[in-house]
Write a structure and sequence with these properties.
Chain lengths: ~300, ~375
């Protein structure tokens, strides 16, 4: 009994330092909870995470198993946890597909689309958020309404267009559109710019800044949190994009990871361990990215240079 | 150093059919090196007038000229002005130094010059210790000083300030008020200062423009406005506590002069024949009496007692402030506010003999509120 309760307080004490700051900021409720209540809340949250985590854990576990473990038909503790650890699956996966080449291709695409779409969306969003021009409302509505258009509808005409431009087989169809803004990011950033104090722009205008300087030197730096959010979304979208490369890329040396992985499946269909190892490698950067960017998400917006 | 002239300036917001006139036929000439204060209640168009000078707001009609040059179509950055915003509008992502240097960098000032000017301004406003900090890590008063410093490094020919002290606590406000005046004396830069606080207006302005609903009520030196308010609005707005307004009647004395009837009390008016007064003879008028002009006790010497008009009053409320005491009294049909020496011992429902100098009485038209004297 004694050991039990001390154990509980130990966990409960650890929990606040790690999470309560986060919780407090997001809910503002946790401070009114007792330690026991907080412990219970976390327990429930952890349980709710299980369904989401299970496939991922299964993938990681499988990536470290030998074939005998994978194909055993009984479900016991000994088949659930990989033993011994087959790290060789990873080296095998790296050999079976030109992983480094795919990674390089993917990163290139990610870099270009992230920079392109974040920047172009910010320019358009600033216009919608902070400038006055005729038919602004209608144009904004029109822009928003394109979000409702499913990609499948435009797929064929867009494909025809790129073929007509002789861009088929190059990265251009995957890169160039990102330089024309993405409605969702524009929408997101427009809301952000709208809330930035207009007096900042006015102060800069009196200080001698033109419209472009105001955008580049004042508004863009201030919208960093929102820009990072957009960049993250776009990174994931490009990283995970399977359809784009499938449509436009035919040269294996230009494959991306998402597409190359699928190729792996069709060639080495039954090598589950290596497939899972490759998949783990595929999702790892995304997870890392989220861990690193978490702060930016939570940090929120520090925009007041004013009285507050 | 610049002179500014508002000439028939209008500002209308909204469509033709449903428009708001924020500034209504503004005509003011501001001289070189002058510290001009625009004062008025909330929504009277002070900020709008200031923003039109800055070029942040289009001018609907009329012209504004700076140094004789009409600037209606001149970009803000070409007007050579600096503005201090009500919420300071410091760039949150830049250090104090960069906030101050920003305008100079854009104007292509050399690095050495920027450094020298920023250092000068920061030592003038005692900001040297904070140059590396971001605005978020400063107190309200410090931010306020950064906003001022950012304006003065520019060495502009015109300062515009929109209620720069309204976010400071009372003590700091008084301190910074003096600091801004000192700065103005040192630099001699023409300044337009917007405030809704009549104390700021009185203490800071070389001249004051009193505004109401977009129109100028009066434009003069603080003392002239205090002593000769153009109408009841100005009279009630300038001076603290506000002037007492009493309903009165204007009559002709048997001996020839004018006489103001305040209920049973008759106040002889020592003033030459005047068309306005003649027009209001035997009609109702509004009499004005400043709380500080109502005397009590020691403030009344035996000599003045004879000339002063006595008002027997019953005290309703006493508000001691140390140096002075504000009392709210009922004198016959009138309710009055009086400000008397703080050392008097007065309790509620006391009966006092208050008195005032008849020459300190103001008279206004009952309908238009225009001063009759
Ligand atoms: N963009 C706008 N559109 C419509 N009306 C406006 C706009 N800006 C100001 N007004 C109106 O113009 C009038 C004057 O506004 P202004 O901001 O100049 O007042 P102010 O004297 O500075 O008041 P305060 O002391 O509250 O700052 C107000 O009635 C206001 O509602
Ligand atoms: Mg204002």
């Amino acid at each position: 009994m004694i050991s039990n309760s001390s154990n509980e307080t130990m966990i409960a004490q650890k929990a606040p330092t790690a999470w309560s700051g986060l919780l407090k900021r997001s809910t503002g409720v946790s401070s009114s909870l007792t330690l026991q209540q907080r412990f219970g809340a976390h327990l429930i949250l952890i349980l709710l995470c299980v369904p989401a985590l299970l496939p991922f854990l299964w993938m990681v576990a499988t990536s470290l198993k030998g074939d005998t473990q994978i194909f055993s038909t009984t479900l016991t503790w000994s088949t659930l946890f990989p033993y011994p650890l087959h790290w060789s699956n990873y080296s095998g996966a790296l050999e079976a597909i030109p992983f480094v080449v795919y990674l390089k291709n993917t990163l290139l695409l990610c870099l270009v689309t992230v920079v392109g779409t974040t920047f172009s969306s910010a320019v358009v969003a600033y216009g919608f958020g902070k400038m006055e021009f005729p038919a602004k409302g209608v144009l904004f509505l029109l822009m928003i309404s394109t979000m409702a258009l499913p990609a499948q509808v435009t797929m064929v005409p867009v494909f025809a267009l790129f073929r007509w431009l002789h861009w088929y087989g190059t990265y251009l169809p995957l890169m160039v559109p990102s330089f024309f803004g993405t409605p969702f990011y524009i929408f997101l950033l427009t809301q952000f710019y709208r809330n930035l104090p207009t007096t900042l722009a006015e102060a800069a205008r009196i200080d001698g800044a033109g419209e472009w300087t105001i955008f580049w030197r004042i508004m863009l730096p201030l919208s960093k949190p929102a820009l990072i959010t957009c960049a993250l979304f776009q990174f994931m979208a490009t990283w995970n994009d399977f359809f784009g490369p499938l449509l436009y890329i035919n040269d294996p040396s230009k494959y991306t990871l998402a597409y190359g992985l699928q190729q792996f499946l069709s060639v080495h269909g039954s090598e589950w361990a290596r497939l899972m190892a490759a998949s783990t490698l595929f999702v790892l950067p995304i997870i890392l990215l989220f861990f690193l960017a978490q702060k930016t998400f939570i940090q929120g917006v520090a925009t007041t240079g004013g009285k507050n | 150093m610049a002179s500014i002239i508002f000439s028939n300036v209008f500002k209308r917001y909204g469509t033709k059919s449903a428009s708001v006139t924020a500034v209504d036929n503004l005509n003011v000439a501001i001289r070189e090196r002058e510290f001009m204060v625009f004062v008025g209640p909330s929504g009277c168009g002070k900020t709008t007038a200031l923003r039109m000078v800055a070029g942040l707001e289009d001018i609907s009609d009329g012209t504004i000229s700076i140094d004789g040059l009409i600037v209606n179509d001149v970009q803000p950055r070409h007007r050579d002005i600096a503005m201090v915003f009500q919420n300071y509008a410091l760039y949150p992502h830049m250090s104090v130094y960069d906030n101050m240097a920003f305008a100079l960098k854009l104007r292509g000032v050399s690095r050495g010059d920027i450094d020298r000017r920023v250092k000068n301004a920061s030592s003038l406003l005692e900001l040297d210790l904070y140059l590396k900090r971001k605005p978020g890590a400063l107190s309200g008063g410090q931010r306020q000083r950064v906003a001022l410093a950012r304006a003065i490094v520019r060495e502009p020919k015109l300062f515009l300030m929109d209620e720069p002290l309204s976010n400071l606590d009372a003590k700091l406000r008084v301190h910074t008020r003096a600091e801004i005046i000192k700065l103005h004396r040192t630099l001699g830069i023409t300044t337009i200062y917007v405030t809704h606080d009549q104390v700021e207006a009185m203490t800071m302005g070389d001249r004051i423009v009193v505004m109401r609903n977009g129109t100028v009520q009066q434009c003069d030196t603080p003392l002239a406005i205090y002593n000769k308010p153009a109408n009841t609005f100005v009279a009630g707005f300038i001076g603290m506590p506000p002037m007492n307004f009493l309903s009165a009647s204007l009559e002709r004395k048997s001996s020839g002069g004018y006489e103001v009837g305040l209920g049973s009390v008759k106040v002889p008016l020592d003033c030459p024949k005047n068309e306005n007064l003649d027009r209001c003879l035997n009609k109702k008028v509004v009499a004005g009496l400043r709380p500080a002009d109502i005397k009590y006790g020691q403030a009344l010497s035996s000599r003045t007692k004879d000339e002063f008009i006595n008002l027997r009053s019953i005290v309703d409320i006493v508000e001691p402030m140390g140096d002075v005491t504000t009392i709210y009294v009922t004198a016959g049909p009138h309710r009055l506010t009086a400000q008397i020496d703080g050392q008097n011992k007065i309790a509620e429902s006391d009966t006092l003999d208050l008195a005032f100098d008849p020459s300190r009485l103001y008279l206004f038209d009952e309908v238009s509120g225009v001063s009759l004297l």
